[in-house]
């Protein structure tokens, strides 16, 4: 298997839609081997951090704040720890909103702010308003939660240093995939309802036109010989969008929800594209790929 979910580093951030709890189920559908791992929507990086050591990786996310954090984790982890300790020592609701309103000029201080707001904000959400400002309310914990684990930061940094990181459009990265590559896409999900969307993890959200562009980019990569897997919600639009491809159903536990009794298992889909023979597994036969819209 390409995933080693028993011996893995843990994400630095809590990320809406993160795959840490779904790794074993994903691994059952992923190829057993690949020459390179490509992830166009890195997010919290749970799948990449469970990748078997030694597999080259091309990682991308269009969220510059996230990529800045990962660069600091790689290159300046000691400074990041110091900055997080300073923020944690000042923990309060008033301090949270002061940090939320101010964006430091210093790269390490900005990275520490990202972690601090993520760990102390409401439910660990990352959400921006239409002006690009972080707008998650205070989490109202009595004490500051743990902001980092020093050993895990070192493990994450070591893994990231062996990968290539980009901050680009997803289609440009998928466009480089070819034979021997395994592309895993975990984009912002199509909401199941008007109130269930976590799409605002970056400015502008993720529209249906973007979902269609993603489908087309993945189909083209599969035509070039790449193995491709795409996670998304079980929304009717997504099932129609990928009609003709191999669509599999997974049950995932939703852990970010304002109501605890709604943090139950929910159906999502995993779409497989391409000839996976080189990866030692082949998707079920599908009814023929649907032409792009």
Description of the structure:
There is one protein chain. With 293 residues, this protein is of the alpha/beta class. The chain folds into 2 domains: 157 residues, Rossmann fold (3-Layer(aba) Sandwich), CATH 3.40.50.150; 87 residues, Adenine-specific Methyltransferase, domain 2, CATH 1.10.1020.10. It contains 10 helices and 7 strands. A 7-stranded mixed beta sheet has the order 3-2-1-4-5-7-6. β4, α9 and β5 form a beta-alpha-beta unit. α3 crosses α6, α3 crosses α7 and α4 crosses α6. The protein is globular, with a radius of gyration of 19 Å. The C terminus is likely disordered.
Q: Helices and strands in order, then pairings?
A:
Layout: H1 23-27, E1 36-39, H2 46-49, E2 57-60, H3 64-75, H4 77-89, H5 93-101, H6 107-120, H7 150-161, E3 164-166, H8 170-174, E4 181-185, H9 208-223, E5 227-233, H10 236-241, E6 246-253, E7 265-273
Parallel strand pairs: 1-2, 1-4, 2-3, 4-5
Antiparallel strand pairs: 5-7, 6-7
Keywords:
Adenine-specific Methyltransferase, domain 2; 7 strands; Rossmann fold; seven-stranded mixed β-sheet; 293 residues; alpha/beta; single chain; 10 helices
